[in-house]
Amino acid sequence: MGRAFEVRKVAMGKSAAQKSKLYAKYGKEIYMAAKSGVPDPELNQSLKRIIEKAKKDQVSADVIKRAIDKAKGGSDETYTESRYEGFGPGNSLIIVECLTDNVNRTIAEVRNCFTKTDGKLGVSGSVLHQFNHQAVFSIPGLTEDEVLEILVLNDVDVTDIEAEENGVTILGDAKDFNLIRSAFLENNPETDFETDEIMWLPIMETELTSDEDNQAFTKLMDMLNELDDVQDIYHNVKQAD
Predict the structure, then answer these.
(1) CA–CA separation, 232 vs 27, rounded Å?
(2) Which residue, 31, 140, 234, 237, could crosslink 95 as a Cys pair with Cβ 3.0–4.6 Å?
């Protein structure tokens, strides 16, 4: 699905992640979800959803098991969610979401990435207002009419529906994520979500017109993605690799 691909690309905003980084990312998320609730995916829906995502990204069963076992073992290790907003090359706006056990270290590392690519960190809210916080679903094998019927029957409102040859992409308010997801699972428990995430999507996109800006932006994305504490990156750059 074209829109779904574009949405995912904007959400992740990164080059191909190394397997070790991907494993570490999901390891933290699974550990925190298991620690903050019951360490059983059948009784903890947040944990179950993260595990499903991890499996789609080909995270090994061993990584998943170790993260859950770590939470079961009563580890006192904890991570704090932190979000940084910054201005990159050209007119690029960037949101960096982290999960860290040392906030001072993380902000210093993130700031260094921006500084070395002629960007700068902004204060809280300086970039966020240029993005919408949205629930994003892409579901293969459904038509727009079928999606509308499910939403109407469940009295669920969404902000946008885009149908393409092989499926539908749905955008809704972030607070309605579980409501939208549940509507489709109740209709068909075997629903295969190609994408089911909460993302920051830019209100307006920008294009980087100079080679210098494009190179600096790519360098910034690469540097951020190399940081262990970075979980997700969102930006407003159109068709950036």
Answers:
(1) 14
(2) 234
